[in-house]
Amino acid sequence: xxxxxxxxxxxxxxxxxxxxxxxxxxxxxxxxxxxxxxxxxxxxxxxxxxxxxxxxxxxxxxxxxxxxxxxxxxxxxxxxxxxxxxxxxxxxxxxxxxxxxxxxxxxxxxxxxxxxxxxxxxxxxxxxxxxxxxxxxxxxxxxxxxxxxxxxxxxxx
Length: 157
Prior knowledge:
Blueprint: E1 10-19, E2 25-30, E3 38-39, E4 42-44, H1 51-63, E5 68-73, E6 78-81, E7 97-107, E8 123-129, H2 143-156
Parallel strand pairs: 1-7
Antiparallel strand pairs: 1-4, 2-3, 2-8, 5-7, 6-7
């Protein structure tokens, strides 16, 4: 019998806010979403993996970025639910959404380190945005997550 959306668990994940020297935030445009939606790097946590280790791994897998310094671990976990039309499609239908631990890091490398054409690419394009523009081009179901991050960043930068 197929599980109902409400019966599905949340996936454990991480999110990474990457700030450049101008305190701008790294955003990337997903390959699997044809609309103009951008997001910060994020991904799943492997069994037994530390949250920060997962964040650093995901960041490198998605963007090739390695040269970062941890600024802050954001308190608590942030949760979002997938809209009904995506449940059953994303994550092979195993999860109804994600609970995430977020980290803020400073990118200390040169821009040519950034390469989204990775082994398993997730992004079409990337850019730096100012904190006040963080929520301008994101998917609606993650809006509250990005709003929380935006608020946190005002105390950091």
